[in-house]
Amino acid sequence: MRRFAASVRATEAELTALDQRVGDGDFGTNLRSGLDASVRALDQAGAVTPAAGGRAGRPLRTVATVFLDGVGGTSGPLFGLLLTELALAAVGPVLDVTALRAGLTGGLAAVQRVGEARPGDKTLVDALYPACEALRVCPERAGSRVALAHASRAAWEGVRLTARLRARRGRASYVGERGRGVPDPGAVGVGLLLSSAGAVVTELPPFVADPAPEQPG
Question: Residue limits of the DhaL domain (predicted)?
Fold first, then answer.
C-alpha cells in the first residue's frame, strides 16, 4: 500500500493528463489524496506482524475504509470495493496466492455488480479481469510475489488494450471516438496497484505504450 501511494505520487501528473482526455481530469488527484490519507491511517494503526498474530487483511481494510468513506469520483468506491474483498480474503498472517485469487476475484465481481462493466467496455475491469485469470492458473506453490508479477503483467496487457477501445461505460463513453488511443485511467490504477507489490512505478510509458510492431523480415 505504501509503494502504491508512492507510485501514484510519482505518476499523478500522467494520470491526470490521461483523465483530462477521457474523463473529468480528477483521477490522479483523487487517487493520490486517497492514498496519502491511507498512509496516514496506516501510520496511526501501527504495524501488522505475523509473529504478533496480525492478519494480512488489516492494512487492506484500513485503506479500503479510507477509499469508501473519503475518496471522491467513481474511482474511490470502486477501489474501496476491490480492497475490501482483498481484506476479507486475507484471513491469515500473509497474503498468499489463495487469498490473492479469492480477493481479486471477489473484487472483480463487486466492481462489476456496481458498475455493470464487462471486459471490452474500457474500464478498470479490462485490467482486473486478466489479472484474475492470471491468478486463476497460477499454482499455490509459486508464491505471492510470483503470482502478483503474473497478475501485474496481465493487467498491463489489459491496460494497453483499452487504448484501442471505444468506451461503453463511465465518463470516457461521452467522448466517443476521441477516446481511442488513450488507455483507461482506472485500468492504469489497477496496474499500478499490482505492480507496486514489487516496486514503485516512477513513470507510465514503459507500461502503457504498445510495443512497436515487428517488421517483416
Answer: 1-199
Q: How far apart are CA 47 and CA 101, in angstroms?
A: 24
Distances (CA, A) of 34 to 26, 40, 94, 145: 12, 10, 24, 25
C-alpha grid cell, residue 205: 510509458
- Find the helix or strand (DSSP H, E) in which 205 lies: helix 205-208
- d(Cα 135, Cα 144) in Å, to the nearest integer? 10
| Residues 6+ positions from 169 with CB-CB distance below 8 Å | 115, 116, 117, 121, 122, 123
Count CA atoms closer than 13 A to 26's CA, side-chain side.
Answer: 11
Joined together, the cell numbers standing for residue 88 give: 476479507
The set of cell numbers assigned to 8 is 501514484
- CB of 131 within 8 A of CB of 154? yes
Strand (E) positions, the chain? none
- This prediction's pTM: 0.89
Cell numbers standing for residue 74: 467513481
> How does pLDDT run across 62-120, given as a tens digit for each residue?
999 999 998 877 788 999 999 999 999 999 888 899 999 999 999 999 999 998 899 99
Helix axes 185-195, 125-136, angle to 10 degrees: 40
